Amino acid sequence: MTDLPAAQRADIVAVFLPPLLTEVRSQQADAGQTVKTLWRTHDGALVESVLMRYPGRATVCISSQAGCGMNCPFCATGQAGLTRNLSTAEMVEQVHAAARAIRDQVAPGDPDVQARRLTNVVFMGMGEALANYRSAVAALHRLVDRPPHGMGLSARAVTVSTVGLVPAIDRLAAEPGLGVRLALSLHAPDDELRDELVPVNARWGVAEALDAAYRYYQAVGQRVSIEYALIRDTNDQAWRADLLGKLLNRRGTSLGCRTSSSPGCGPAAFPQRCVTPVAGKSTEHAGSWRRPPDAAAARSGSLEFAGGSQVPQWPDAVHVTHVTKRSAWARKNAISR
Fold first, then answer.
1. Exposed end of the chain (fewer CB within 10 Å): N or C?
2. Model-level pTM?
């Protein structure tokens, strides 16, 4: 604006157009391939994003809220409470920042074309994206819509995680022009325990959440992930593994599961089983945990389970992922049992 004094233009821009996100600090792991960044918004709220680079792809995990109101007791963000919802622009800016970081880090002439661009986005950072529905959906459109209206990412490369807000899952399934992937944070196959681990379960129980995830698959046709955090002596019992397999197989599921478990969780504490319909009859089989072939993965405690159902209604629709438990959970007083 040339009608403003030149000496004051920068100050006016700073007041009326503050930066969406300002980097506070960052932490690196895996020789710089994983970078977690703490951002400060224009009003002082703090959020995090994580950029993870792998051979042939790069994923950014972004936040949808500053804090979280879901109050899950094993989650540090949930225990901190909700500060506010993030705007569409603040969510998209986390993706833009990751894309710029990849561009700046890649050496000129790198033969790996995929290493030069951001390929995947997951809404698995701070907050419950579906509790900030309008802004999150607008951000999704900015990611998957074709240029110039969006970034043109594949809908298959974008995943939204939820604790199981059933009406919002159904609403997302009906959104035109999206078709992104869904992840359901289950963490327990029974209502008694999930009521404690994921308090929103008191409103929409395990069966309702899984049915909503199934409906999402039917409507969108994209794989649904079931997230399960193994917590020692809390949700890693054999009978819960049995129940998890039965619940998923009952919905015509094909299971393929990878888990990185903490000490005390794994083959001995969580021997997975599933109910596998064979030749028209249902027989219970004990699943077999096996170490991966490479020694590095074996030393890290990574485990793989091969099991599944032959029911064809939902082939390859569910991918069950287990993540390492939070070390703070060793303090048993985190939940009143």
1. N
2. 0.75
